[in-house]
Design brief:
single chain; alpha/beta; Spore Coat Polysaccharide Biosynthesis Protein SpsA, Chain A; 13 helices; 9 strands; globular
């Protein structure tokens, strides 16, 4: 591995451990890696993981490693959160930042966040704003500045996650001190921000756009993640913010659990959580629970065909 690259004026600059995680991002991985390599801040230790990709991602990464000399670890797919904790155990940097390899860091991202953390030693985590792009790299809509400034536990519980993972940088020793990322939860950015603010640690969201977040249809968050988000919120069910959080952010959780086939979990949710009793949520969910789905499929098949086997016009 090549040592962190230096430029005049970098002497004594704190080292940043940048961790990139790839899973089947052949189409996007080169742009993501180059966005880390070409940061204006140069004191960066770059560690890239390939999590069992089955496309050409590993080939791209091996070529990039030859060009730029970063650490590349090819492993089975152990998931994003476990991979981040593995990287945390290896990190030499004072600061720690992660990126999925379908997203892109803007060139000034690292420099701005290091400067902010150096100037504000009481801040444990800093993030910023995102700009959404499509698979071709085209802006989907203008970037929105969402609740910049100090982030409170109450705001996170009420409005959901606005501390976006691909924009985040945090203090490595702090992250180790709290045990790293919670591996029982899949959504690492929201759970970490909630944990820190609940413990009274300072989290700040900058108004600057720092990352381009790519929406390409295969993001694992493209479907509903309400049950996962509700599980995170459930850790704080004894707080006064919990009922606001559940009702405001996850009004369709019961229906989603039933639709996913998680009927026992759905019933438990209905009996124990402040679920909004609407037809779209509880009504549809109860019907779906009571009627075997095989009957629904058969009804749909019959409805779409005429008695002679031809489809209705």
């Amino acid at each position: 591995m090549k040592p962190p690259q230096g430029v005049p004026g970098d002497a004594g600059a704190p080292l940043v451990t940048a961790v990139l995680v790839c899973w089947n991002h052949e189409r996007f991985v080169r742009e993501a890696v180059l966005s880390a390599v070409h940061q204006t801040y140069r004191a960066i230790e770059l560690i890239v993981f390939d999590n069992g990709s089955t496309d050409g991602s590993r080939r791209e990464l091996l070529a990039l490693q030859q060009e730029h000399g970063f650490t590349l670890i090819c492993q089975d797919n152990i998931g994003l959160v476990r991979t981040l904790n593995k990287a945390l155990s290896m990190a030499r940097g004072k600061y720690f930042a992660g990126l999925a390899t379908d997203d892109i860091w803007l060139a000034e991202k690292t420099a701005r966040e290091v400067a902010f953390l150096e100037a504000n030693p009481d801040v444990d985590l800093v993030g910023g704003q995102i700009e959404c792009i499509d698979a071709e790299g085209r802006r989907i809509y203008p970037p929105l500045v969402v609740r910049p400034g100090d982030v409170s536990f109450g705001d996170l519980m009420t409005y959901g996650c606005f501390v976006y993972g691909p924009t985040v940088m945090c203090r490595t020793e702090m992250l180790r001190a709290i045990g790293g990322y919670d591996e029982s939860l899949r959504i690492e950015d929201y759970s970490l921000a909630l944990k820190l603010t609940y413990e009274g640690r300072r989290v700040v969201s900058l108004p600057d756009v720092l990352t381009q977040y790519r929406r390409h249809g295969n993001n694992w968050t493209a479907g509903s993640v309400d049950p996962e988000l509700a599980e995170i919120g459930n850790r704080y069910r004894d707080t006064p913010e919990y009922r606001i959080f559940y009702r405001r952010n996850f009004p369709m959780t019961f229906w989603q659990l039933v639709a996913d086939g998680r009927k026992r979990e759905a019933l438990h949710t209905l009996l124990t959580e402040p679920v909004p009793w609407t037809w779209a949520n509880v009504g549809r969910g109860l019907v779906r629970m009571l009627i075997p789905y095989a009957f629904i499929r058969a009804y749909r098949a019959l409805k779409g065909k005429r008695s002679d086997g031809r489809r209705w016009a």
